[in-house]
Amino acid sequence: MDFYDVVIVGSGPAGMGAAFEITAKQPDASILMIDQERFSTGGMRNDCKMNFTYPIGFPEEYWTKEQANRYMEEVTRFLKPDILHKSNIGIYQQRAQRLGCRLLEIRQSHLGTDGGLLLIKRLLAELHALGVDLALGETMLSVDDTLKYIQTDKRDIGYKTLLLAPGRKGFHFLQMMLQSLGVPFLDNIVDIGVRVETRLEHYPIVKDYYDPKFYFPEKVRTFCTNSGDAHVVKEKYTTARGDTWYSVNGHAYSADTHEANGLVNFAILKTVKFTAPLASGQAYAENLGMQAALMGGGRPLMQRVGDFRLGSRSKADSFNTDLYDFPPSLKDCCPGDISLAMPAKILRVIWKAMKNLDTIVPGVLHPSTIMYYPEIKLYANKPVYLDDHFRVTGSVFLAGDGAGTSRGITAAWASGIRCAEGMLRVMEP
């Protein structure tokens, strides 16, 4: 059996944050980082926008402002981000305030999808140079924290301390591990919404503020704005039964290397918190995804705002060069009627938020604007933690979006550092 002082499952920002922290504090520790994908995963692969202002990315049930700022300083020193310039924010904030909405002013950095891949390549090379063993394309199957070893599809691996740091796609995996460890958890929160795509001139705020964070009444917010060479993409998910469905997402390439396509996309999400007797918000979200896939012939749905306002489904000829004046960047979608797939209560508050947004930034509800459905964020596991370092058993820790300790790259990295501090204590002789 192979043995390591530290085993990290997940190669995204949470796992990297922990690995770099442990190598800095205990250079002689043996560390293994595994990931079921053949390449490093995590939010840095998809547009790689990073937020450096509390509370963005930091669930307030786990982070005080003082804690978040302290760890954020460490993340900032390590990543050395180039903070984007913002202008004219006061104008938009005043408009939002009149409507009972908020525009948060966030320190942001943006590398683009291509820049994020270069960053990942550099970070992995640095970890390798520091002596961290990387096992990409290896899948963890089970854990025994009494005997302190995990099983993968290739071998058994012993450990002193274990960090489970899957992202949102590792939601099912993490639940299985928590159940096998006997760790109680809640799964009752999910974000459900649409991704909006329009021409840049219909959402010009992005020229002043790359990823504007609007908060609307009834727990609705904008999320993950992309502009420049911006594209809507599909993300594949598989249920525990083996059924496949797709959520949409967005990304953009860096301005230095790609020519702008004149489009912008962003999500508008409604946070839904369930109470008893619902057993799983995750299962609810999957059923919504499966329903959309059923209507779309296995594909997400898309609908023009002009058709939606008329109460009509979008058809293939809705995506022409007349009034509807740009083709969708994600063509592998089914034109349809999202009101038949999205729960009415959720759709109502999202549409209300979009109308408010059109008052704050006039033009976003141009008839040509496309709404893609579904966009669902699955990071709502809420385990019972034993201490302030996200420990769930004697030597097992959790970090990242899949564990509910973060929502985004920088907060995930911070949660990895916070776990690493606890892991180093476990390893003390």
Short précis:
This protein is α+β, with helices and mostly antiparallel strands and 429 residues long. It has helices spanning 13-25, 65-79, 89-98, 112-129, 171-181, 281-295, 305-309, 344-360, 409-427; strands spanning 2-9, 31-35, 49-51, 102-104, 108-110, 133-136, 140-144, 149-152, 156-164, 185-187, 189-199, 213-216, 220-238, 244-253, 263-273, 301-304, 334-335, 370-377, 381-383, 396-398.
Structure description:
This protein is an alpha+beta fold. The protein folds into two domains: 2-88 and 109-185 and 381-427, FAD/NAD(P)-binding domain; 189-377, no CATH class. 29% of the residues lie in helices and 28% in strands. It contains nine helices and 20 strands. The protein has helices spanning 13-25, 65-79, 89-98, 112-129, 171-181, 281-295, 305-309, 344-360, 409-427; strands spanning 2-9, 31-35, 49-51, 102-104, 108-110, 133-136, 140-144, 149-152, 156-164, 185-187, 189-199, 213-216, 220-238, 244-253, 263-273, 301-304, 334-335, 370-377, 381-383, 396-398. Strands 4, 11, 12, 13, 14, 15, 16, 17 and 18 form a nine-stranded mixed β-sheet that branches. Strands 1, 2, 6, 7, 8, 9 and 20 form a seven-stranded mixed β-sheet that branches. Strand 16, helix 7 and strand 17 form a beta-alpha-beta unit. Helix 1 crosses helix 9. It is globular, with a radius of gyration of 22 Å. The mean pLDDT is 92.
